[in-house]
Every structure is written in C-alpha cells, then in structure tokens.
Amino acid sequence: MNKASGNGGHRPRYITPEGEQALREELQFLWKEKRPEVTQAVREAAALGDRSENAEYIYGKKQLREIDRRVRFLTKRLEEVTVVDRLPDDQEKVFFGAWVTIEDENGEEQTYRLVGADEFDLDRGYLSINSPMARALIGKRLDDEVSVRTPEGFKSVWITGIRYASASQDK
Description:
By secondary structure, the protein is an alpha/beta fold. The protein has helices at residues 17-46, 55-80, 132-137, and strands spanning 13-15, 81-83, 99-104, 109-115, 126-128, 145-150, 153-163. The protein is built from 3 helices and 7 strands. 18% of the residues are buried. Residues 91-164 form the Transcription elongation factor GreA/GreB C-terminal domain. This is Transcription elongation factor GreB.
C-alpha cells in the first residue's frame, strides 16, 4: 500500500471544482448553521426534564450524531480529493470532467459528464468516473465505438460528442 499518496493506496479521488465547492458548502452549512440549531433544540428539550421519555431530546441527540458523522466524513473526504481544475492537453479525447454524448444501437443519444464518485447524479447527467460506462469511455475519441458491460450483457455505443466546459457553461 502506498501511504505517501495520502489515501491508503487507493487510486486518486478526483473531483471537479464545482463538486469540491458543493462539499465545502455542505460542510459549512452543517457546522455553522444546522449543528448549532439542533444543539439549541436539544438544550431546550433537556431543560424540560425527564430525558428518557422526551422524544424531542432523543431525536435531537440522534440528529446531532448524524450531523457529526457527516461532518467527519466531509472533512476527511475534502482532505483526500484531488481537484481537477485544468483542461486536458488533448481535448479530442475523453478524460475526467468531459461532457460526452453517446449514441446507442437504436440511435438514442445521451450526454454525460464524467465526474468524481462524490458528485455523480444521473438526473443531471453526471456519471461517476468509476462506473463501467465512464471507464470504457476514458481515452476514446469522437466516432469511436465503445463496448460496455451492462447487466444485460455487452452493449455498443458510439461517441458523437466530446466537450469540456467551464462551470458557467455547465448548465
């Protein structure tokens, strides 16, 4: 195991600048707003007396544990991630952060952005870099045929578009 990389020998955990910002904002919200709010609610519930049957107190303590667990996770994750904030030298190939349009055998097109595991959101078209589809697309070029293993077997898709966008063009 390679301890020097800081992540226990695992491959680097890449993240887009937007993804890192979202994690930082969540951490800030939990620590500066949510936790103090819940702490105050627990304090008020505790003042009401018998804690063993006090639902607000019990729920508040549970909420605090969940917030603290998430804060620890986010803090550790932000130390582990590698922010990819520059465009690749060869923008004709698919790399991390690319928007890739693919077409399947039925002529149906879908566009995905290859993002870090912490960012994936299929509703937004954000595909985890660790997914089989993303791994199959990495390093490929426009018009390349890509074979991807799916639960139904292998599926062929063709790359019909590759673009790299700044955050302002991301929508």
